[in-house]
Amino acid sequence: MSGMCLGLDYFVRRLLAMAVVVWLTSLACST
Asked: How many CB atoms lie within 10 A of CB 20?
């Protein structure tokens, strides 16, 4: 069970990192 939770945590962190990168790029392109 802990392995699944760790995998989910890693997936969420990767998703958040990707969202931040996309947000920053769109912010840079809009200026």
From this structure: 10
